[in-house]
Amino acid sequence: MVVGPTVLIVDDSASFRCSARAVLDAEGFVVIGEAETGSAAVQAVDRLDPDVVLLDIVLPDIDGFEVCARITRPGVARPAVVLTSSRDAEDFLVRIAGSAARGFLPKADLTGPSLAALACPR
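Given the sequence above, the corresponding structure tokens read:
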């Protein structure tokens, strides 16, 4: 049985987490967890060891850039991080470029293929 990449969805919106889970489950990803804060995301990555983290930039405690830095330390095999937001990418261009994230995906454009293109390059 072939199993797709495992994903942790990090977003403070329960409705976005639910829709993202439905989209990704239907398109071959295996959603293994969700987190609604940055600190919960860091703990979930350590506990679940996902292949991919779909990470909202704007979170209630620590922002997605800080979460990304904490979960992608050099020399440690860590997940591919794809940042997301309902805000425009231009609002974050410099910070996205300076992060260890694989890229940015607007929430409205989330599909399995769009996530795979950033997180699982061949």
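The domain at 6-119 is CATH 3.40.50.2300 (Rossmann fold). Try to locate this feature in the token string yourself.
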